Amino acid sequence: MAGGRRREQQRGRQSGSGEHTQLQRNEVQCSNHDATHWLILSHDGKVSEHWAKPPANCSKTRLVKELGSLNIVQIACGGQHAMALSRGGELFTWGQNTHGQLGLGSQATFIPQAQLVERLKGIPLAQIAAGGAHSTTVSLSGAVYSWGKNDFGQLGLGDTEDRDCPSYVGALEHWKTIFISCGADHTAVLSKEGLVCTFGAGGAGQLGHNSTRNELMPRVVAELWGARVSQVACGRQHTLVYVPSLDKFYFFGSDDEGQPEDERKPNQLIPLPISSPVNTGNSCQKNNTSQNGIKIMAGVNRSFVLCKENQNSYLNGIATLENKKVDDWISNSSSKVQFERIKKNIRLIFSSEACINGSFLQKRDKHFKTSKEFSGVDMSEVKHFYKKISEMPKLFQEVQKEVDNLLPSLSSSPISPENFRVYLILPFILQGKDKSCYHSLRLLAQAIMKLQPEDLQTLECLWSNLETSSFEELVSLYQRVSQDNLSQFITELHTCGPRDPFNLYPDETVPLQILQMLYQVNSRTGFRVEESNFYVPLVKEIIHFCQFFNRAIALWNLSKYPCIFDMQDRIAILITERQVLCAEGSTLSRTSTEIILTYTGKQWEFHVRRECFLQDIWNNLECASTQEFRKILKVVFVGEKGVDQGGLSQELFSIAARTLCQPGTSAFRHYTSGLVWFPSKASGCEDKDIFFQIGTLCGMALFNQRMVPFPFPRALYKKLLDLSPTLEDLEELLPTVGRILWGILNEECDHNLESMDIDFTIMEEGDSMDVVELKKNGANIPVTKDNRKEYVDLYVNYVFNESVQKPFQDFMQGFLRGCPARSWKMFLPVELQVVLQGHPTVDWHLLEKNAVYRQYNKSDKTIKDFWNVFHKLPEEKKKMFLGFLSGSDRIPVYRLECFRFCIVDPQAKNPDELYPSASTCSLIFYLPRYSSKSILKEKLLYAIEHNEGFGCA
Fold first, then answer.
1. Which residue of 92, 507, 535, 608 has the lowest C-beta tally within 10 Å?
2. What band does 188 get if pLDDT is binned at 50, 70 and 90?
3. How many CA atoms lie within 13 A of 719 on its CB side?
4. In CATH, what number is assigned to the domain containing residue 640?
């Protein structure tokens, strides 16, 4: 019942009824084992059907007209059903369907007209086979699919439930299947290495396992191990194989069906050699060690051998692309007659998802490893094809035209990793920089976004395993398409075209969705591609346009794709959202290097006494309503005259962070790295509200564009953004522990790893030294080379997640309360960290360059002396001066390039007696005209060390 194939010339003889024979030159007959139903495949790819006793409403002989003009390359006959595979990669079935053997998902018991098996659409099939009431197929990369009757386990799926749709036989994954054959109720599979697996009914010994037991899962025929079988064929209850190196045929099972019981031979339970059913003769000797030299088939009671001379015609498969074919297209494209032939060839391949998926396969059988992690596609061959075809515009246009027609019909429910090759291949065939290619890539993006979430995950996995150069090219493609989309959007905005000026159409956002997906893949794989490759510069113009017209809806739509923004763009969107939330009279302006927002909306006056600093902060937060956090924070230090223009609120956050992190009084755990982290559950921290309050304070700082310089590790900002911390993050917090864990991962000697005597536990530093198990029974599980990755992952997870679950949850809830805006989630962890903590490094010469003066000139002696003294100060003292001036020792990210302060002459009568002072409200530095550089240095150091600039003069 194996599939019939067209052959150029065959010789042989049939003893009894066979499954397919040669009728005349270039025609093939395929029949069931009873010879009651057979198909004939003509030389031009047409199929006719014949019944000895036709079912009701069926003619005895008919041309299968519903296959139309399709070129059929393989046929297979089951008990009462038929299969046909076209050169374009489509599989059709018809006939009896009582067990779902047609694979159509239909409950109809009989379907007389050939129907497309939709479930296998896009799978590049290499072979088809039909059993009594079950069907199987093999893909070019060895994936096996089965469906239909399964009462003996003949589908190889581990159970006895029938299937009415093709199911992937997972047990044969990476088996490198190249051929499959079906008996009445059993199946045999041949691998490229010459191994044979059988499964299904075993009552007659037809599985070859020295048993009459049924097998629900594929099982290797042990007696044939090492024999390197080249051919396998199943009869109704027997199996025949051929070993070319021995020039022998092996038989197992029973060929006595239909014989009187007293004349039957004992069942053959293991493979044993038999005499050749035919004398192969000299004409076959030259091929008798070749897999392609001899073809064996099995009938009802007897088997037979067909000898053929043309071994290249052994398999007539679907159309795939080869270098020779492309070279032929190029060399003959100038001829009008030949070009018509070439167009048909191009149409055949590029109008078929299956044919594209079956092309560009990796050599040396690597494609047999195709999985969710490995595509099996040779991307260099794809790029080589594009390079060739792009130099021939006529050919390229034909390819593009067929691809454009195909894209809307791509499978939305793929069943195999082989389905996904088309999504990897086509972008690199459509990578031109003109409008037509952009249109094609948009169509491809739409097809991708029709996939189900689990299928998108598979595609993302395949993307993540692309070589970096290919992945970067893919990013560049969709970055350009996105840029082109937004260019059209901006043009319509400026020309007042007939559209909603603040909304993108759905088809315009699809390439942005793909770009964002690629960005997420990039972030999970360690940022192999620079983030700047994802930026779309035109969004700056859209941001400016929306801010100018005080409209935010387009920005909210675009904010779903944060990868297209650079950091300053994300800050602008956060500021715009704050503007909307504050609701009243805010105005925004932007230079090329900074964003300035002036608020005249509702304000929240936050009164704080310095002597009760933290207690007043907590009281304010506890009494605040939700609406208060949507207002503009204005800090008032009780008893001081200063007006908060940004400096006082910054001072509040800076002092709060410094106070809350003081060793001995801090709720946090301090580490030698200089960083702080939440206390573990073993520490017994009793203040349940403190982390909610600290989180609220941090959220308020973000919402009000202020820094709150808690020395948190990068891991906190990852957790805020729902990203998992890694070993690199642990090494930042605990450098020694991190180095030890890296050493465990990189240790190559088993003995050295064993001598470390490590198990799946961790020592917690709480009120008592507690040993915590990282997994159940962890104290009794030693760390080995096999499980060390799991150990390290569990260690990292415990430090950053499990041990601090409650305090972090409290912190997160407070953070969301303090920052009612949500666009901050667009930031990368490193960006969110620098927004909240400020820039840890300062360009001091840029600070000098940006300074402005009152009652002074840049060339005055006092100014020159000041900068001379300042630049010679240690880094620590310079940071102290910045805190003395602005309330923070860091430069806010909002003013990175344009942080300016004013140096003013207080015009005192006795300047040598005065200390410098500063107004943190307005960033004014009052510098008297000292008589000497030494006095200036002495007074400056005293002032900044005693923080006499904090507050407002």
1. 507
2. very high
3. 27
4. 3.90.1750.10
**Single-letter amino acid, residue 488:** Q
Return the exposure string of 290-328: e unless at least 16 CB atoms fall within 10 Å of the residue's CB, then b.
Answer: ebbbbbbbbbbbbbbbbbbeeeebeebbbbbbeeebbee
Percent of the chain at pLDDT exceeding 90: 61
Same-domain check for residues 576 and 642: no
Q: What is the pLDDT of residue 686?
A: 54
Q: What is the DSSP letter of 277?
A: S
Rg (the chain; Cα; Å): 38
611 by DSSP, 3-state: which?
helix
Active site residues: 921
CA 134 to CA 141: how far, in whole Å? 22
User: In the beta sheet, which residues pair with residue 240?
Assistant: 233, 251
Is residue 480 within 8 A of residue 433, CB to CB? The reply is yes
Nearest to 368 by CA among 123, 168, 142: 142
Question: Could you give the 3-state DSSP secondary structure of residue 57?
Answer: coil
**Is the predicted pLDDT of residue 503 greater than 90, yes or no?**
no
For 515, residues 6+ apart whose C-beta sits below 8 A from its C-beta are 475, 478, 479, 482, 534, 561, 563, 564
The token duo for 736 is 């020694």
At 481 the three-state DSSP class reads helix
What is the arithmetic mean of pLDDT over 408-412?
90
Look at the chain and report how many structural domains it folds into: 6
Whether residues 516 and 631 fall in one domain: no
Helix (H) or strand (E) holding 763, with range, is: strand 761-765
Band (pLDDT 50/70/90 cuts) for residue 816 is very high
Confidence grade of residue 949 (pLDDT, cut at 50, 70, 90): very low
Residue at 891: amino acid letter: I
Mean pLDDT of the chain: 85
Report which residue type is found at 861: K
131 and 32 housed in the same domain = yes
Q: Which of 50-54, 286-290, 875-879 has the lowest mean pLDDT?
A: 286-290
Percent pLDDT > 70 in the chain is 85
Per-residue tokens: 923? 């960033």
Find the helix or strand (DSSP H, E) in which 77 lies: strand 72-77
Given a contact cutoff of 8 angstroms between Cβ atoms, the answer to whether 148 and 103 are in contact is yes
Lowest mean pLDDT among 20-29, 154-163, 259-268: 20-29
Kindly state whether residues 714 and 859 are assigned to the same domain. no
Is residue 315 domain-resident?
Answer: no
- The dihedral over CA atoms of 646, 648, 651, 655, expressed in degrees to the nearest 10, equals -140
140 assigned to some structural domain: yes
Query: In angstroms, what CA-CA distances link 13 with 4, 34, 171, 244, 801?
Result: 16, 18, 37, 20, 73
Are 370 and 238 within one domain?
no
Task: Answer yes or no: is 952 within a domain.
Answer: no
- In this predicted structure, what is the pLDDT of residue 612? 93
pLDDT of amino acid 641: 81
Lowest mean pLDDT among 115-119, 403-407, 905-909: 905-909
| pLDDT surpasses 90 at 68 | no
**Residue ranges making up the domain that contains 588:** 468-600
Dist CA 217 CA 197 (whole Å):
9
Phi, psi angles (nearest 5°) of residue 301: -110, -20
Q: How is residue 788 annotated by DSSP?
A: H
Q: Which residues, 6+ apart, have CB-to-CB distance to 918 below 8 Å?
A: 884, 885, 924, 925, 926, 949, 953
Contacts (Cβ under 8 Å, ≥6 apart) of 61: 48, 49, 50, 51
Report whether 39 contacts 50 (CB < 8 A). yes
pLDDT band at 190 (very low <50, low <70, confident <90, very high): very high
Backbone angles phi, psi at 763, to 5 degrees: -90, 120
How far is Cα 831 from Cα 846, in angstroms, rounded to an integer? 22
Q: In whole angstroms, what is the distance from residue 576 CA to residue 638 CA?
A: 31
